[in-house]
Every structure is written in C-alpha cells, then in structure tokens.
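2024-03-11 09:14:02 INFO receiving multi-entity request
2024-03-11 09:14:02 INFO entity count = two
2024-03-11 09:14:03 INFO echoing inputs for audit
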Amino acid sequence: MASPRELTQNPLKKIWMPYSNGRPAQHACPRGVCVTNCPTLIVMVGLPARGKTYISKKLTRYLNWIGVPTREFNVGQYRRDLVKTYRSFEFFLPDNEEGLKIRKQCAEAALRDVRRFLSEEGGHVAVFDATNTTRERRETIFKFGEENGYKTFFVESVCVDPDVIAANIVQVKLGSPDYIDCGNDEATEDFMNRIECYKNSYETLDENLDKDLSYIKIMDVGRSYLVNRVMDHIQSRIVYYLMNIHVTPRSIYLCRHGESELNLKGRIGGDTGLSPRGKEFAKSLAQFINDQNIKDLKVWTSQMKRTIQTAEALGVPYEQWKVLNEIDAGVCEEMTYEEIQEHHPLEFALRDQDKYRYRYPKGESYEDLVQRLEPVIMELERQENVLVICHQAVMRCLLAYFLDKTAEQLPYLKCPLHTVLKLTPVAYGCKLESIFLNVEAVNTHRDRPENVDIHRSREEALRTVPKHL
Amino acid sequence: MPMELTQSRMQKIWIPIDHRPSLPRRRYRACGPQLTNSPTVIVMVGLPARGKTYMSKKLTRYLNWIGVPTKVFNVGEYRREVVKEFSSYSFFHPDNEEAMKVRKQCALAALRDVQLYLKEEGGQIAVFDATNTTKERRDMVLDFAKENDFKVFFIESVCDDPSVVASNIMEVKLSSPDYRDCSSAEAMEDFMKRIDCYQVNYQPLDPDNHDRDLSLIKVLDVGRRFLVNRVQDYIQSRIVYYLMNIHVQPRTIYLCRHGESEYNVLGRIGGDSGLSIRGKKFSVALCKFLEEQNLKDLKIWTSQLKRTIQTAEALKLPYEQWKALNEIDAGVCEEMTYEEIKETYPEEYALRDQDKYYYRYPTGESYQDLVQRLEPVIMELERQENVLVICHQAVMRCLLAYFLDKSADEMPYLKCPLHTVLKLTPVAYGCRVESIYLNVEAVNTHRERSEEAKKGPNPLMRRNSVTPLASPEPTKKPRINSFEEHTASTSTSLPSCLPREVPTQPLLGKACLT
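2024-03-11 09:21:47 INFO inference complete, emitting structure
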C-alpha cells in the first residue's frame, strides 16, 4: 500500500497541497468559484438599443470580480475599427452587399479573438456582443463553439416599450463615436432607421425551433424571463445575476466606520469603538445623509462595534451583516505593522508580494473576502439607494466591483477614513464622487513598498507605513 | 448617550444600550438580507402528479434551514381528514357537486390555517399546496392574500411527458393513504382518471396576458425550462434560484468527517492538526469503501484544513477544497480542551450549553453563522449528482440538518461520529440515510445536551431573531369537523418527510441521529 502523499502548506495562500520530490503537485484544486472545464461562450441576441452591451459589460465585470476570467467582444467595435467613418444607417440596410461583407468579416474577426482568449489565453468566459438576430448567424456561432469545445449560452433581450428604447438611445447611443459629428435629433433619427434595418430579419429565440439551446430571454428590462436548459454552475450563476440586476436610477454610498481607537494606534483589526474624531464623523455623516435627501435609504453595517456606532448616529434603522466584517488578520489581529514586521517578517513580505492572494495565518485573504462579499454585491444589485458602512479592505473589494478594478489594483484602492464615495450608475459604468466630510483622521493606507523581497531590511519593509500614535 | 453599545452575551451582537422605543426595532440578519415585513403565500399550481408536493416540501425544508420560518399546507391532507374513506377518482369529477363543496371547504380551512400561521404563529412563508388549476380558485387565493396583506408567489409545474407522470405516480401516489387497499395496477388506473378530472378545467397560468401582473414561476418539464414573471423581492429571487438548481436525477450524497486527528486524540477543539495513525487507517478504509460503492463520476469535496485534505489524499482521486467547509471558528477558544474552556471562560462555556445554535464564540462563529456560510455548498450539492463531502463535526451537523429537515434546536446535537460515513439517497419526499461505520476505532467527540440546556432555550436569548423551525408536523387541532388525531408522521429518528405509511427504514443508523 503506497503511503499517501505528504502535504505542505503554500506560504502565500496557506493552501495545503501534496508534494512529491519536494515540489508541490498540481492535484488538489482550491475552489474559488466553480469553474466548468469547458470555456463558455455567451452570445447576446437582440435588436439595437435593447441593452445588450449594457448587459455584456456588467456581466463581464461581475464574472471577473468573482474570479472567472471573462472578456467581452463587441462586434460594433470591430466594425468601427475597420470602417473608419460611419456615414449613415444605410450601412445596415439588408441589401447593402458591401456592408454585409464587412459586417461578416468583423464577426469572424471577433470570433477569432474569442478563440484565442478561450483556448490560448486562459479565458473562461467570452461574451460575444452583437445583434445575432438571425437563426443562421446563431447557428454559425454555435457550430464555432462546438468545434472548439465551448459551451454556448444565449442571452436575448426583448423589449417593445418605445420609452425604454428612446431612453437607451439617449443614454448610450448619442455619445457613440458613430454620431460624433451629429446633432441629437439627427442621431436619434438615424438610429431609429438603423433598428428598422434589423427588424425584418429578426428571428427571436423560439420555444420549439431553439428548444435544445441553452438560453435566457429577458423581457421588458427584467419584468419576465424565459430560461431554457441551464447546463452548469456558471450558467446558473449568470442567470441568477441577470435576474437580480435592474436599471432603476439610484445611488450607492460607501464609507468606512468613523476613526477607531485602534486606527489611532496604528493597529489592524480588532473590535474597538470610535475615537472622539470618529464620533464627530458619525455626526457629520448623519448631517450629510440628511442633506442628500435620499428616498428610502437602506443602511448596512458590519457586526463590528465601530460601524454600528457610526450607524447609530444616523438615527435610522440599519441592518448588520456579518459578511461585511473587516478582513480577518488571523495571528496578526490588533498588531501594528511594526509588530508584524518584528514577529512575522516573512508573512509581511509575502503580503507585499501578492496582496490580493495573500492569506494571513489563521486569517483571510482579499480573495477570500471577495467570495464572502458576493451575496452583498448581489443584494446591492437588487436594492436601490443604499449606504454601506464598512471597513478598509471590505470597501476596497466592493469598490473594485463597481469600478471594474483588477485583482492587482484592488488591495491598493484608496479608501480613506471620513470620506464617502457616492456611486451612481451612468451609461455603461459608474460615476464616482468622493466627499470628504471635513473631520480629520489618521491615514491608514499603506502603499506597496519598493522592496518586497523576504530578505529586505526592517526599514525597507516599514517605509510606507502611515504615521500613528 | 448615543453610540453607547453593549455586546449581547449569546450572539455577540452589538446593540445600543438605551433602547429608544421610538425607533423601529433592530432586526439582526439571520441568514439573508432583511426579510420584507409582508409574509408570503406561495401558491402551487398544476395537475396531480406534477411534483407540486415534492417541490413544496423541498422548498420548505430549504427555507427553514436558511432561517425563514416556512410551512406547507397540503389541501389533500385536509381532505383526507374530512373524507374518511377515499372511494375513487369520481370524487374528483367536476360534476360531483357534493365533493366540490367539500373540496372548497378544505381549501378554505387550509387558508384559515395559513392566516393563523402567518399572522399569529411567527410564520414568514406559507406554501399552499393544491392543484389550484382554475382562475377562479386562484382569484380566491389572491383575494384572501390581499385582505391579509400577504404577498403571493405562484409556482406552477407543467409536465406532459407521460413517463415522468407515471414514475411520479409510482414513487409517491401508490403508497398514498388514498390507495391503502388497492393493488398498484388499480391505483395507477384510478389516479390517471383522477388527473383527467382536472385536465378538463385546467387553466394554466398565462403571464403573457391574463396573469401578467402576477409574480410567478412556471417550471416546465421537470426543470428543463422556466418562465419567471415579476419577482418582487429577495426571498422570491432566492426561491427562483433554488428551484432552478434542484433536479430529480437519482444520486447519492456521502457525508463524513476527516479521519481522527491529533487534536481529536488530545481532546482539543479546532486548530489545523494532521491525522492520527487511526485517522490514516480510516482514510485507507474510506478509499476501499468508495471502490466498493462503484460510483459513476464521484465528486469529492474537502475543507481547506489539513485533516480533511489528508483524508482525501488517500482516495487517490481528484478533489476540490472549499474554505466554506472549514470547521466552525471557535475564536478565542480555538485549540483548547473543553476543560480549559470551562476554566478560562466559564461564562462562555455555560452560555454555549444554554443555546448551542445561536451561541457565537468570542471572535468566532455560531452554528447560525455556519448555516449562512454553508448555503452555497448546499446549493451546489443540489446541482451535483454523486458527491462525497469530507468535512468536520459542526459542519456535517449543519449539512445533515438540511437533508434530514432537523430544527435549529436539534442541529448542534446531531450525532456525527468519526470514521462513520452517512449515505443519503433521495427517496419519495425525503432522504434515506444509511450509516456505515468503517471499523476503525476513534475517540468520541460528541457532547450531549447538558442538564442546563435540557431545561429549554432561554426565551430572552431569542429577542432579536426568529427561531427557524423544521417543517412542522401537520397541525393537530381540528381543522374542519373531524377530530382525528394525526400522530406525527414520523418518529424523531426518521427523516421527517417520509409519508407515514412507509415502514421504518431498517437501514437507518439510529446511532447517528439524535
């Protein structure tokens, strides 16, 4: 009986892995998010101005945030790169042979890039963003998927409400490069004609003809959905996400608790109360919220004293979420950076080497935080006006989701104390306003030092530590 | 003084010291965002043998497990109480006026109980399980809900595949009390005619027109396809997600703990130690056991703690590590023995015995926190087929409580001994459990309910949370005119959702349940 392989704990992520011949074996796979073995090709379907690109970008942002490498491929963008100047809707007329040729070329070029991303560059999900309104086009793409070993999932957006379509055009089409030299009325008229070009040949996903395909049909901006043959975990998550997002205007406010006693001492973690300045901030926050005059504001806090104390000053109901608690620093809880350098210099260096994946001994990593915060993001998508009073690392994770930041950028996002970030969805992204509430606080932001080598000096390690008592 | 907080001793929740009655009461998240204040009535819709009761019970079990008090009201059961002897399908004939009257009365009685449950008994969701196949009947339910300020969510199951219908009838109808004295063939024939009675007047939900303003999900062909309309809130969104992830493929779930660890031997809780010699022997025995089970495509999941991974390594198969499966975090008590805890933190020690489900270790977790952490594991288990989960005592208790519909009160005391595999197989409306001890000795890590705890949970401790209940037994009080006492359908050692006629499963390992 062969003895089982010995285990070693990876020093960065603290994952136990088997090793043979002194080297870790690639056997066990730590689960971040369930990833299918096959890459997935998401194919958008729908007339222009139905929200396809909006959905593509949002979905891509979400999947990347939860750790699934995703990229969108917008065929319109390929067309703009090829046909330098857009003249008019006539390009899209169904009998414009020249136009048709170019458009087909662009679709093919996009699919080639999809293949490179999924089969060579380690991508897991590709979002093919185009109208794909004919069955023939969709069959071509499906075959492409099959040939390459991809699972195909269609996302169709159907909407007949003229107000919605008009609003979409105003939000995202008028500012398109295609209409850079046009007046708004001109642009709108041209775009409406463009939509007409597609209508005649539009074949919506059909209950019978397309019964073996995997798809979701979104009707009237999410009033109802038709879901057919969900194949695996990732498709199920995509469906769940699409069913929870909405387009009602609203704002999300993110801030940290007021300055805490441990903040003042430069200590991380713990569960202390607010300093006097922190309490000042709480009062200012109450004033600020009042002045914003927000309809039906929901207030969320963590279950740590400092966020709750802050919320208490607002005089409104709030909900405590344990998953909003600050990152668990394990054995380093309540230490200063100086103490960490003294007692755990190796850990301190490893953290600087890969702050996103680094897990504190008996604690968490940013990567763990993201997984923990996913239900918060999902619920934020469902909600309207929300104020989230949380912590530095947690706020960085949430902010990275809204601002589409990478894993490398995330742990270094600036989230200073006593500053409210107001996020308002606009067009395809998020408008960000930063409001400092004029109550002084310590700086808790530590930049990545130049020297991250495990043999660096104490000085080099501590160079970027912010001042504290 | 604003911002003065105190931390509740049991759950370690920070609350303001001066309770200002003018502000709405604080409500603390159990396992999801704040539930809306309006309770919800879920209305099942569909011809007989379309899986309505199956979905009702499963959904109810899930919702209770995540902490949302939910109960099923099955109109068929009300009918069985009134009409002592089921004669034949002709009872359900649309021309049978007498029977129609009785059936309507039963529906109304059930709705009265729904009202009581949601308004006075702390229920949050009531599942109204009946065919509800006509607009008229559904309008009646909508009116009822409107009068009471309840939200309504319809779940319709549509299936025309005759083999599915036949197999449903075999699985759960032939053994129904209605067919107690019939042969299988007779029962099948009668039931098919029963279905025909409904078919004539069946008006499916029509979200494109007549029902466009209703919140509903139509489940077509056992989950191949779904139509979802107007999801109103968080809980409906979770229900839709759950229904879209469950399936009916036969499969088996194996739950076990890591092999005995060094710390187990020392009587220390938590930590991240490796396997003892006996623990390693167990892993080898587990490997052999799995080979004998001869499973198709077994997925293996472990936690990220060394002891479960070491156990999986011996199986020589690929496995996935889930941080969510890590053992409950005992906070400041990590790596202590119970004696050390009693000596160092006597108050904490006592509190835990008082209310083990809600008790949170200082800077650690509670069973309630564990449930929230494990919910994605349960969701993925529902999606999967054959899975072996190698985990830990508290984690295994939480998972087991989900499958066997155990209450929050019972969960922390479920028996999950080392070196014992629990094999769970879905059957009828519930789960069959087999307990297989792999014949390698190990220490016993189970602590029984203390004398203190047996006195019952301290009601003060539940001030800010709703007690999740397991799907309660059918109410014993008289519902219509009958007064027949319904004995609880099962004893505590049986999975509580088996129909009562099924004889005690001989394979149930009583050793592993309370």
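2024-03-11 09:21:48 INFO post-check: Residues 21-33, 459-514 of chain B have pLDDT under 50 and may be disordered.
2024-03-11 09:21:48 INFO post-check: Chain B is about 35% helix and 15% strand.
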